[in-house]
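COMPLEX REQUEST
Ligand: zinc ion
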Amino acid sequence: MALTPRTVRVALATRSYEIVIGNGVNRQIGERCRALKLGTRCAIISDTNTAPRYENALQTSLRASGFQPAIITVAAGETAKSLKNVQRCYDQLAAHRLERKSFIVALGGGVVGDLAGFVAATYLRGIPFVQVPTTLLAQVDSSVGGKVGVNLSAGKNLVGAFHQPRLVLCDLDTLRTLPPREFRAGLAEVIKYGIIYDARLFARLERDLPRLLKLETKPLAEIVARCCEIKAEVVSQDETESGLRAILNFGHTIGHALEAISRYGKYLHGEAISIGQVAAAELSASQFEFPQRDVERITDLFRGAGLPTSVQLSKQEMEKLFGAMRLDKKVSGGEIKFVLAKKIGEVAWGRSVPEDLIRSTLC
Ligand SMILES: NC(=O)c1ccc[n+]([C@@H]2O[C@H](COP(=O)([O-])OP(=O)(O)OC[C@H]3O[C@@H](n4cnc5c(N)ncnc54)[C@H](O)[C@@H]3O)[C@@H](O)[C@H]2O)c1
Ligand SMILES: [Zn+2]
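STATUS: Structure written out below.
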């Protein structure tokens, strides 16, 4: 059953935009871009998994509204977020004579969104772009907020910019072809919003998780919309992460380090931050009198979503993990900083935690 699309506004003065969430909303891209008065030429950037499935619908709608889309496809996977692909995209945009009012459509998960967004942020010193996220993680997280960028061999997301999209279209139908493991990984970010900002959302997830896992339209639409609302509120208050936006990093200090030491092979991002969030909840219990009962609720919810909640590390791996945490962008003044929970729905950021405590929590 198709529901009326929901709209969430990201309020950022002249850079404000709408996130539209619903079934089949990708077919509205042409009319929505026309309403934004975007230029005629555009380029759809997608990957080898999303292009064959979803590009046609976008092209048809864009052409019907008078736009002239060019198509750029990159190989699927994290390695697509490279300066080499940025260069390839620039060359193709130039070949298709995209100009200042032209725009880019990012069709895919967070990888395509970050790459295409970075290309849009820098080509001709910045042209508009539209996010069409097709993974749960991209719909609730990476497509909203304007962080775009690519990886270097020295590390992930080391080159980037803040460049807000003009529109985000979250077509829930696209989630039906997403591999289940990718969907569950996206749930780790969904659960995160409950922990950091909204105890009611957390309780709803405890109740409705089985329906979400079955991709039932109504709860899925409501929950994706609520997550977008929370991200929009946080970003509106702190666009460039000088404060509040840091709460979105709950579970990410350990999560990012786990991804780095396993060379981005063993864990999906959502799996690594699931382990990181359970560890952060345990650290919160020892540092903040966060109730032990709520550590258990958090662990149970991640487990119920089919996500890992603990990790076995050798002594050597543990040292590598600390090495990676010290290299993280969140380190300041040599201290590893954490987002810790006071209670479900409320967190504090920039908290230093003694290394011994982190070690004993992970053992
Ligand atoms: N910019 C931000 O604020 C932000 C926030 C979080 C994560 N990220 C970035 O997002 C990236 C991860 O994003 P992701 O988890 O979406 O990964 P992804 O883009 O690699 O997508 C996961 C896999 O699913 C495939 N896929 C995507 N949509 C599909 C669909 N509908 N049907 C079938 N297959 C589909 C992709 O081709 C890929 O193989 C990372 O690079 C991370 O750094 C950015
Ligand atoms: Zn994340």
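REMARKS: The longest helix spans residues 217-237. The two ends are 47 Å apart (CA to CA).
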